[in-house]
Amino acid sequence: MTMTAGLVRAVGLWLAGVLAFGGIGPVAAADGTVGKPEILDTNYQYPEGAYIHRGILFMTDMSASQIKLYDAKTAAPKTVWSIQNCGPTGIVAMADDQYLINCHLAGAVVFLDRNGQVRKVVAEDSAGTRIRWPNDLTTDGDGGAFVTDSGLFDASAPATGSIVHVWRDGRAERLKGGIRYANGIYFDTATRDLFVSEHIGRRILAYTVTPDFKLVDDRVLITLGIPKPSGFPFYDKTGPDGIDVDENDNLLVPEYGAGRIMRISRKGEYLGAIPVPMQFVTTVIRSDDRQMAYFGGPSDIHSAQGAGAMGRIRLKPVD
Questions:
Q1: C-alpha angle 6-58-222 in degrees, rounded to nearest 5
Q2: pTM, entire model
Q3: pLDDT tens, 64-77?
């Protein structure tokens, strides 16, 4: 079931689609050191979802209810989309020159056109079940997207996280459930492997996507076990967050609560990690040229402002 723009107010969501300018901090120059994080923008509260499309880097700020846009090559700031009462945690390109965003705090996924205007709000799946906590999303390779509906962020809560497929026309179908906080998600359109972070379970789950977008061959790629010491204070809900791939197609997975980005092979081997300055790193996205990866997250989840930041890491030496 979908809701028209006229019913947006029913879930407390206001998406004016107006572009607001300014509010982006200075950009640091890259020094070319592989694996050394560089902070580019500290004017964030709670950075969540990074995405690159057509030369634009998008970074959502859940607490500020904004999406910031940068040049994906230079990281030069371009503009800000202000989205009131949404709490955006992810964005992805859809068919017909549209974008889909997760409004985590409003409990809906929202279609925007290329100018930021609302086209459709989807708050329920085809069975009438609310999409309560849309968290991360990834393209399905056919103009639609896979979305994680996370469930409760509580180690004692039942496993209510799930994976939802949103078709290009706005239909939503719940594919899998029983996940202990479904967080990051990444679909490899070439291999048709879908990877999902089970945050509270501290596992990376994997599935094969059939041509008609069903999930088969359920498997656990890796169980992370007890968090390794990180140099940050212990956090009892440390776990894997967003997912992308590095220059060699290994998974890049921020470890929320431990201040690092893990590298995990497609065989489920832990290959090490890259430390970053913020303890609660949430998101990472590789640049189109495979040279850099952008990341973001808050340093303090107990502060209203979050002390968030966005930065980048060089993955390969300068040619």
A1: 105
A2: 0.90
A3: 999 999 999 999 99
